[in-house]
User: Which sequence fits this backbone?
C-alpha cells in the first residue's frame, strides 16, 4: 500500500490498512483454532459497522480458542472471566499459539 504522501494532492485513501473480514470456521485454514481473540463490549450490532469495530479501543476480555466442533456449532475457549460469549464480537489478529 502506498503511503499517504504518495497520493495526489487532496486525495484520501479509500482502502484502509486494516480490513475486517468475517471468519468462517468451517473453511480449512481459517486460523481460528488456537487463536487469541479480543472481545468487544456488548453493543447493538446494528450500530456497529466495519469502521466502528476497527476504531473501538475498549477490549473487555481476551479468549483463546482450543477446539472447534463444526457439526455441533461449538467452540471451546479458555477465558479468564466467566460469562456468556454468545452474540459477542471478537477480533482476531495475527497472534497464534502453537503447541
Assistant:
Amino acid at each position: 500500500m502506498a503511503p499517504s504522501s504518495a497520493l495526489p494532492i487532496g486525495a484520501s485513501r479509500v482502502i484502509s490498512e486494516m480490513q475486517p473480514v468475517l471468519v468462517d470456521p468451517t473453511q480449512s485454514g481459517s486460523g481460528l483454532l488456537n487463536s487469541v481473540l479480543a472481545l468487544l463490549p456488548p453493543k447493538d450490532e446494528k450500530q456497529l459497522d466495519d469502521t466502528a469495530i476497527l476504531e473501538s479501543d475498549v477490549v473487555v476480555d481476551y479468549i483463546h480458542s482450543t477446539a472447534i466442533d463444526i457439526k455441533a456449532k461449538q467452540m471451546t475457549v479458555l477465558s479468564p472471566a466467566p460469562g456468556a460469549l454468545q452474540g459477542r464480537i471478537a477480533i482476531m489478529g495475527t497472534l497464534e499459539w502453537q503447541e
User: Anything to note?
Assistant: The first helix runs from residue 50 to 55.
